[in-house]
Design a protein that fits this description.
The chain is mainly alpha-helical. It has 10 helices and no strands.
Amino acid sequence: MDLAPEQLQYLTIPDILREAISIPKQSPKTFYLITLTLIFPLSFAILAHSLFTHPLLAQLQAYPQVDPSQTRHEWTLLLLFQFFYLIFLFAFSLLSTAAVVFTVASLYTSKPVSFSSTMSAIPKVFKRLFVTYLWVALLMMFYNFVFLAFLVLLIIAVDTQNALLLFVSGVVIFLLFLVVHVYITALWHLASVVSVLEPVHGFAAMKKSYELLKGKTRYAGALVFIYLAFCLVIGGVFGSVVVHGGNEYGVFARIVVGGFLVGVLVIVNLVGLLVQSVFYYVCKSCHRQGIDKTALHDHLGGYLGEYVPLKSSVQMENFEI
């Protein structure tokens, strides 16, 4: 990012996207390795997940009570697969975020960048992101509880033909999904960057993210919505062609389309992580919160076990008689 900190606040959504896309050019080898080792497995798992669960679900639906022992076996396999899938998804999502945010910040402070230094910093960064994610998970649990409550009201409204209840519950569900869900996602993404680049994490990072989003909420919502829309379209096409398209498409066509869609999702996920890093600096600039590159450089060095020099004011205070 070659722009002055005070100019970042004026970036539009196309400007943010262009800025994010240009970042890997500064260290192509590092981003190539991060993409290959972290983002590609994550993207492949997201799409390939339905390939493994669809046959199990089809069997359970086709023969629900033919053989109880076989049914229990299928359910056990499905639940085990879902459990390990969620663990894998969670781990690689946090690892990818840690790697990209750390690398972008290192480039921003002109700190030497390499894949090995990024991987060395990940363990400490991961711990901070994990704590922040736990707080986000609590917030999402509350959101899901409210969403399910209104979903039940919607079903009751349909059964009782209550027009007013149907309208109110429908509007609330729409707003919860389109507005609240998108806002929580934006809050989470920005809190993840804050957890890496500032000496706060967990609830404090969420609070800082909430403050930074003020004035840029529309931008954040638009960027998250664009990302989710791309993921939805990619997942929909993958499901219709690769997973359920066996009768209409040949094996070769499904392999080609599947490989292409995995590649597209890899790009979308990489750009998404880069965008959330750039958006952090945009929000800081919007709130006139200057970024001390020297302090940030030292903070990043702390993840690598480097010596962090004391500020002169602190040194003078210690020796004051």
